[in-house]
Amino acid sequence: MAVANAEPRLEGDAPEPEILIVDPDPVSRAELRALVSTFAACDEAATGEAALRAATARAYAVVLIDIQLPDADGFDIVTRLRREPGAKNVPVLFLSQTPPDWLTERQGYTLGALGYLTKPVDAAALRARLEVLLMLFRRGTQLRKHEQLIAEQHAAITEAKAALEEAAAANRAKDLYMGVLGHDLRSPLGAILMSARMMLMRPTLHDEDRQSLIRIARNGERMAALIRDILDYTRGQAAGGIPIVPRPTHMGEIVSTIIDEIALLYRDRTIRLEARGELRGRWDRERAEQVVSNLIANALTHGMGEVVVTAEGTPAEVLVSVHNGGTPIAEEHRATLFQPFRRGAARSPGLGLGLYIVSEIMRAHGGSVEVSSTAATGTTFTTRWPRTDAARGTGS
Amino acid sequence: MTTTEPCSKIVLVIDDDEDFCSSMRELLTGRGYTVETWASAQQALERLADTGRRPPCAIVVDLRMPEMDGYSFLAACEVEPRMREIPVIVVSAYGDPTGIEADFLSKPVNVSRLLRSLEATC
To answer: What is the pTM of this model?
Structure first.
């Protein structure tokens, strides 16, 4: 006796069975299977219990069930089927040897049966009914798949939103942290540096005291530059570039101010300024000072001998270059010199942000920074500061 | 409020950071300036509004202060013609001059730069 085929199937193995044939007679089952198998796969059951097991294990488009089963009445089986959560709505077609009387028919419809088929079953009539049911079943399956897909997408979107919000919150916290850290570190550092510089400006200073003050100031300047770089990098990342506030300013004055400040701390080194041409324009003075200061500090730290700073005005732009002698920058470091967090092997401690920020400041001004470095000519960083139309051509 | 050296060019320093104020006093006194330091921008405004007192040749103001901050101080100066004439140098450890018209110096203040800015205005 054949039993219900409720074994799990591998996907792609065979079409999913969509019709359950419940009939105790093997010949009748074989006939029905032959009829149905041209348009759908089916499972078979010979007893009511087997039918129940099969129908609760998977969803069928329709159950074809003989009203006379060896172990139970077809109606009883359908009654029990209706109590199963997974099978309570499955469409049922009853099969019988004889046309049902009106009482039997009513009993069947009460159970939600869609109709009666009298054996021998009319192939065309059966197929017509089954095809409608199959179509509805397949649409239902499709719909559930879509619903599931939508639910999954919705869950993914919700998850992504949460992740974005989390990232934004972390970003805000970072900005706040950096801002407070920068500010709260800078104020006391400012007091230290200012005091040290003011003492260094005193004409009556013992050499030993001067050396100590220079150490304080140099190290303080390094800390200040590092804090500034971190803040600039963080803000630049958040704002898509370093913000600048261009105003009328004088590049020669900027360069000489920075040289004065730095020369106080490097008394054993010579920093020479060569200025020529019209040096006025519209730039962010603080940022320009930052660029010049950074390049001169680099030249003093990494180079040897005299540092020459040149400021040269041309009609379209002002060029500021900083030159030093000594070992040139290795070829392999030159390509990544202006990238963030890149440091040459022999370069100073820190984050490797200084030259990146220089290039960002130049970019914000519509200018550029370039480097040339050879053993024969030394190392020269050249910054190009375009004048705005308003500043161009002003007399000296 | 603390004043040093009468009858010279007056510089108003407004900052709640006492160390900055005393550094400024040390730096500028003896370089021909009289330094008035104020920890409160509100009080400094009242002093500036007092027509009986000599106006300063420059104001150095911090941005971040409790109660009235530097931004509010600048806004208040803008509406008062008497104050609008006085050059202002903004100093800030926060280092973001966005939206500030006045001369801007970030802390740690470049001393040479500050002296030059004052020379240019006083």
So the answer is: 0.65
